[in-house]
Automatic annotation (TrEMBL):
Full-protein positions shown: 518 to 792 of 795
Domain EAL, chain residue ranges per copy: 23-273
Coiled coil start-end: none
Superkingdom, taxonomy of origin: Bacteria
Protein name according to UniProt: EAL domain-containing protein
Length: 275
C-alpha cells in the first residue's frame, strides 16, 4: 500500500506494476518505431451489403515490435495518443494510405482512422492538402473516420477542421456510432457522410433484442438523414442476413475479410489487379 499525494491510499498489485512497466516500454519503443520502419498498414474491405462488391478499404495500423512481435493498436494507439506520438505516426498513416490507394487500379474509397489529437492539431487541414497533393490521390476517394470523442472538447476547432477537410472534397464518417454519450447531437453538429455502427451492436444482433432494435434504429436514422450506414464487425452469415433484412448499406468484418496486407487479397478483390 502506498500513500498517494492527495493523502488517500491505493493498492498496487504486482500485475499493475507489470502493466505500467509494459506501457513505459511501449512508450519508449514507439519513439523509434517510425524511423525503424516497424509500422505497416493492413486493409479491410467495406463491401456492399447486398452484392458483396467492395466499395472501399479501411487502413488499420500494425506495429511489428522487434522483441514483442505484433502489438495491437488497441494497446499502442492510446499510448501514442497520450505521448503525442500519434501526430507523426498519424501523418505517416495518412500519407502511406493515400500513396497506396493512389496506386490501386480501381478508384475505391480509402478510409483512414484519425485521432482527436490529430484533428485538434494546428494545421491538420494543411497536412491533408499537402498529403493529397504529394500522393496524387483524388480527395473524393479519401474518407476520415472520426469518433464522437472529437466533440467532447474544443468542439468548434474540430468542426472547423472537418469543415475544411470537406471543402477539399474529403468525406468524413462517424466511427463506432452509438458508443458515445451524445451520438444524436453529434449528428446534428456536423454533416457527416457515413455512419459506422459499432461492432458491439452488430455482434449481439441475433442474441439481443435491444441490440437488434438499436441497429434497426441507426439504419433508419441513416436513411432519414440520407447517410449510408456501414456495419462493422460482421462475423457470420446470420449477422449479414439480419443486416440485409434492415437494408444496411455496407458491411465490414471477418465474415467478409480480415484486415490483410493489400498484396494478400486475391485477384478478384485486389483493387490494383482488377480491371
Ligand atoms: P476501429 O477503427 O473500430 O477498427 C475496427 C477494429 O475491429 C479493427 O481492430 C479490426 O481489425 C477489428 N475488426 C474488424 N472486423 C472484425 C470482426 O469481424 N470481428 C472482430 N472481433 N474484430 C473486427 P484493430 O485493427 O485492432 O484496431 C483497433 C482500433 O485501433 C481501431 O478500431 C482504431 O480505433 C484504432 N486504430 C487502428 N489503426 C489506426 C490508425 O491508423 N490511426 C488511429 N488513430 N487509430 C487506429
Ligand atoms: Ca475505424
Ligand atoms: Ca469502428
Ligand atoms: Ca469499433
Amino acid at each position: 500500500v502506498k500513500q498517494s499525494g492527495r493523502g488517500s491510499f491505493a493498492f498496487f498489485h504486482p500485475e499493475m506494476d507489470e502493466e505500467a512497466r509494459r506501457r513505459r516500454e511501449l512508450e519508449r519503443d514507439l519513439v523509434h518505431a517510425l524511423e525503424q520502419g516497424q509500422f505497416a498498414l493492413h486493409w479491410q474491405p467495406q463491401a456492399d451489403a447486398q452484392s458483396g462488391m467492395i466499395r472501399g478499404f479501411e487502413a488499420l495500423l500494425r506495429w511489428r515490435h522487434p522483441v514483442r512481435g505484433d502489438v495491437s493498436p488497441t494497446e499502442f494507439i492510446p499510448v501514442a495518443e497520450a505521448t503525442g506520438m500519434i501526430i507523426p505516426i498519424g501523418a505517416w498513416v495518412l500519407r502511406t494510405a493515400c500513396a497506396e490507394a493512389a496506386s490501386w487500379e480501381a478508384p475505391l474509397r480509402v478510409a483512414v482512422n484519425i485521432s482527436v489529437a490529430q484533428i485538434q492539431q494546428d494545421g491538420f487541414d494543411v497536412l491533408l492538402r499537402e498529403t493529397l497533393l504529394a500522393t496524387g490521390l483524388v480527395p473524393e476517394r479519401l474518407e476520415l473516420e472520426v469518433t464522437e470523442s472529437l466533440f467532447i472538447e474544443d468542439t468548434d476547432r474540430a468542426l472547423d477542421t472537418l469543415t475544411r477537410a470537406k471543402a477539399l472534397g474529403v468525406s468524413v464518417a462517424i466511427d463506432d456510432f452509438g458508443t458515445g454519450f451524445s451520438s444524436l447531437s453529434t449528428l446534428r453538429s456536423f454533416t457527416f457522410d457515413r455512419i459506422k455502427i459499432d461492432r458491439s451492436f452488430v455482434s449481439e444482433i441475433e442474441k439481443s433484442d435491444s441490440a437488434a432494435a438499436i441497429v434497426r434504429a441507426v439504419i433508419g436514422l441513416g436513411q432519414g438523414l440520407g447517410l449510408p450506414v456501414v456495419a462493422e464487425g460482421v462475423e457470420t452469415q446470420a449477422q449479414l442476413a439480419a443486416l440485409n433484412a434492415q437494408a444496411c448499406d455496407e458491411v465490414q468484418g471477418y465474415f467478409i475479410s480480415r484486415p490483410m496486407p493489400m498484396a494478400a487479397f486475391s485477384a478478384e478483390v485486389h483493387p490494383a489487379r482488377s480491371v
